[in-house]
Amino acid sequence: MSAENPGYQEFKLDVDCELRFEIETKDQKATVELISGHAELFGTELVKGKPYEFTTGAKVAIFTYHGCTVHLRGKTDVSYVARETPMIQYLNCHSALEDMRVKSEDNGSNGPIVMIVGPTDVGKTTLCRILLNYAVRQGRCPLYVDLDPGQGSVSIPGTIGALLVERPATVEEGFSQKAPLVYHFGHKSPGDNDVLYQTVISKLAEVVLDALKANKRAKVSGVVINTCGWVKGAGYRHLLHAAKEFEVGAVFVIDQERLYNELLRDMPNFVKVVFLPKSGGVVERSKAARAETRDLRIREYFYGQKSPLYPHSFDVKFSEMKVFKIGAPSLPDSCMPLGMKAEDNMTKLVAVQPGHNLLHHILAVSFAESAEDEVILTNVAGFVCVENVDMERQVVTILSPQPRPLPNTVLLISELQFVDNH
């Protein structure tokens, strides 16, 4: 650090090294600039001479295959150069997937469908981003599927979804969120409604596999699937279910040998199961940090990241809203009507009377127009948040990315809440 310019550091990185830094303290910023050589962030190439800004919560790893010089300005909680990284193994995984794509071009089959699995905080989302970026940089157009409702990298938390990736993720904002296919789940953990979670996974898989048939470039490019960090018991069964529904051909297991061995035992022989180390730069997050990230994802949905968005706020009468929740309290089988199973209740549509119960909740705006449609199997158009409830006037005030009126469709309540401090 120079005396004239506190907060300025120069790093000269050797071949296959990585600069890692984290910003944890509130309202801190740091900028990185590539001065010479070549470097990338999670598979996205850095442009020489362009400053990239990072803010609170950033965990950054800038890697170089050839060597480079970078300048770091601002305050970070930690910054260091790592010589040991799994990037070469990750690159080998990309090469293997690329070989499969070349084969599928020759024989007309689907490109590689790969699922990334592992416990919480081992870098699954980061590996997905690296593999997708490398594919796009080779002219591919893969589909990204996110089955983790806890963090939500395709849409907001409480959902699962898919996205066609046509260009590399931007360094600061990630992949373009244009026209994602999103299904409402309404909870942070699959365990809050296992039956619904499996149902929406099956539906998403069906639509994704149909999309591969319809888009030749996507068909060859294949699918990269991100999963949640719950890998035991029912969580493990969800992984097996997703692998079957998506017709997965390869599973990359990060950092857990037990899970790797279980999958070797339970996966069909044609599925390649590969064990990968996690990066030393991966940081475990506390419950509070995960909750903060969820809030941030929802805030970005309404207000944007670097480029600001301006959401609308308007009143809607109770009488103009059709609000439902999915899943009724489960009854013992003895109380069920003849021939009905208790689990049917978990996917049942239950009407919700608007009132204070909606305050701060996220509502998914379904494409389904009435409760008679197959609501749980219908994707959503977007989300609104209930900012205020006026019982006297029988209206709610909602925050919405679109101006009024609210589309005349079904609204699905999520357990996720967002308090707008704008």
TrEMBL record:
Membrane-crossing residue ranges in chain numbering: none
Localization terms from the record: Nucleus
Gene3D superfamilies named among the record's database cross-references: Clp1, DNA binding domain (2.60.120.1030), P-loop containing nucleotide triphosphate hydrolases (3.40.50.300), Pre-mRNA cleavage complex subunit Clp1, C-terminal domain (2.40.30.330)
Keyword rRNA-binding: no
GO terms classed as biological process: brain development; mRNA 3'-end processing; tRNA splicing, via endonucleolytic cleavage and ligation
Pfam families: Clp1 (PF06807), CLP1_N (PF16573), CLP1_P (PF16575)
InterPro entries linked: Clp1, Clp1/Grc3, Clp1_C, Clp1_C_sf, Clp1_N, Clp1_N_sf, CLP1_P, P-loop_NTPase
Keywords: ATP-binding, mRNA processing, Nucleotide-binding, Nucleus
Domain Clp1 C-terminal: 309-420
Cellular component terms per the entry's GO annotation: mRNA cleavage factor complex
Binding residues for ATP: E18, K59, D121, V122, G123, K124, T125, T126
GO molecular function: ATP binding; polynucleotide 5'-hydroxyl-kinase activity
Ranges where the Clp1 N-terminal domain occurs: 13-103
Domain Clp1 P-loop: 118-304
Family: Belongs to the Clp1 family. Clp1 subfamily.
HAMAP family (UniProt xref): Clp1
PANTHER family listed in its UniProt record: CLEAVAGE/POLYADENYLATION FACTOR IA SUBUNIT CLP1P (PTHR12755), POLYRIBONUCLEOTIDE 5'-HYDROXYL-KINASE CLP1 (PTHR12755:SF6)
Function summary: Required for endonucleolytic cleavage during polyadenylation-dependent pre-mRNA 3'-end formation.
Protein name: Protein CLP1 homolog
Originating organism: Phlebotomus papatasi (Sandfly)
